[in-house]
Amino acid sequence: xxxxxxxxxxxxxxxxxxxxxxxxxxxxxxxxxxxxxxxxxxxxxxxxxxxxxxxxxxxxxxxxxxxxxxxxxxxxxxxxxxxxxxxxxxxxxxxxxxxxxxxxxxxxxxxxxxxxxxxxxxxxxxxxxxxxxxxxxxxxxxxxxxxxxxxxxxxxxxxxxxxxxxxxxxxxxxxxxxxxxxxxxxxxxxxxxxxxxxxxxxxxxxxxxxxxxxxxxxxxxxxxxxxxxxxxxxxxxxxxxxxxxxxxxxxxxxxxxxxxxxxxxxxxxxxxxxxxxxxxxxxxxxxxxxxxxxxxxxxxxxxxxxxxxxxxxxxxxxxxxxxxxxxxxxxxxxxxxxxxxxxxxxxxxxxxxxxxxxxxxxxxxxxxxxxxxxxxxxxxxxxxxxxxxxxxxxxxxxxxxxxxxxxxxxxxxxxxxxxxxxxxxxxxxxxxxxxxxxxxxxxxx
Length: 445
Hints:
Elements: E1 2-6, H1 10-21, E2 25-30, E3 46-47, H2 60-67, E4 75-77, H3 83-94, H4 98-126, E5 137-141, H5 144-159, E6 165-167, H6 169-175, E7 188-192, E8 196-197, H7 200-213, E9 217-220, E10 222-230, E11 233-241, E12 252-254, E13 258-261, H8 267-272, E14 281-291, E15 302-305, E16 310-315, E17 318-327, H9 337-353, E18 370-378, E19 385-388, E20 394-398, H10 404-419
Parallel strand pairs: 1-2, 1-13, 2-9, 4-17, 5-15, 13-20
Antiparallel strand pairs: 3-8, 5-7, 6-7, 10-11, 11-12, 14-17, 14-18, 15-16, 16-17, 19-20
Helix pairs in contact: 1-7, 1-10, 4-10
C-alpha cells in the first residue's frame, strides 16, 4: 500500500517508520524544512508512563477559575470568541469526575506502556542516540495536601501496572541530590525507576533520516491545502511548495491507499473540512533550555516540580525546563507580556530550585536562554485519537496533548498495525471498527 502521512513530528515519523517496517510505500508531508520543528521541537523530554494523568479531575474546574488571572498559572484559560474552545471546555468539564478520571487513566497508561516498549524496540533496532537517560522520573511536592493527593494517584497508577511509589524527602534527595539546596521546602515525592528522558527532536529527526534511507519520500516545505473528497472517500491530497517569492505555483496532487493526518493541533481544522469532527484544541506550552554552569550540580534524574507543574530534564550540557498550558487558540507568540511572564517564571524557578546551576540570564544580561513555545494537541480526556474515520482512506493519529513523546512510538506502531489489518496488543479504544470496544467507535463524518 502507498500511505501518505501528513505531519513530521514524533507521531507522524513514528507512523512512517512502522509503516515501512510493514512493507508500505510512504510519503511524508510537512510545512517545515525538517522533521520535529513544531510541537516535538523542545518539549519536556520525559517518557513519563508513570505520570500519564489526565488534566480533567474533580479539582480542575476550581483550579482553572482560581488561575484565570494569574499569568504564571499552570493551566491558564484565555477565553476567545471561538466556539471550538467553548465546546472543548464543556467536554472537558464533563470529564472532571472520579469515574471518568480513572477510566481515562487506564487508557492513557495502556498506551504509555505499549509505547515505551515500542520505543525501546526502535532504539535497539536503530541505535539512535538522543541524550537518553534511563534513570526514572522523580516528582517532588512542597505541601502536605499535594503529597497526600499524590498518594491516591500512586495507588491508582499501581492498580494499572505502573510501579510509581511514594518516597520521603530524604529518599528523594538520595535519588536526586541536585535539589539538596531546596530540600528544606520539599515535603516528599514520588519516583518511578522505569521512566526515562531524552531529546524528542533529536530522536525524531534521526528516525526520519532512517525512514528516508529505507525509501520514504519526504516533501518538506510543503503546505497541505486540502483533502479532496469524492463521495465518502479521500481521492487525493493537494499540497503546495511554500518557497518565498515563488510565482505561478501549482498544486501538487498526491494519491494513496491511505492518508494519515498527524498534524498535531492543526489536525482538527483539516479533518473538519471533510466532515470529521474531533475535539482537539491547542494547548500552548512553554520551555526554556539553559546552558549548565555547574554540570556536577545538575540533576541526572528527570524531575517534576509539583509547585509550578514544570518538568526538568538533563540533555547533555543543557537543562530543559518545560511546563504550563495556555488555552487561547493558535497563538505562538513569545514576545507578548503574558508569554514573557511565563518564560521568566521558568528561569526564576530554576534559580529557586537549582541555584547557580544554569545560566538563566536574559539576553540583556548577557545570557542566551532558548525560550520556545509549541501547541499541544489536547483532547478533553487526554486520550488521543488513533485509527480510521468514516471517510474512506482517511486515518488519524492526533490529540496527544503533553504526552506526544511518551506515546509517540506506540501510537505510530499501533496505527501502522491497524492500517495493515492487524490488532495492536493492548486494550485501547481505537477509532474505527477495528477496536471492537464500546464507546469509541468510528467518528461520524
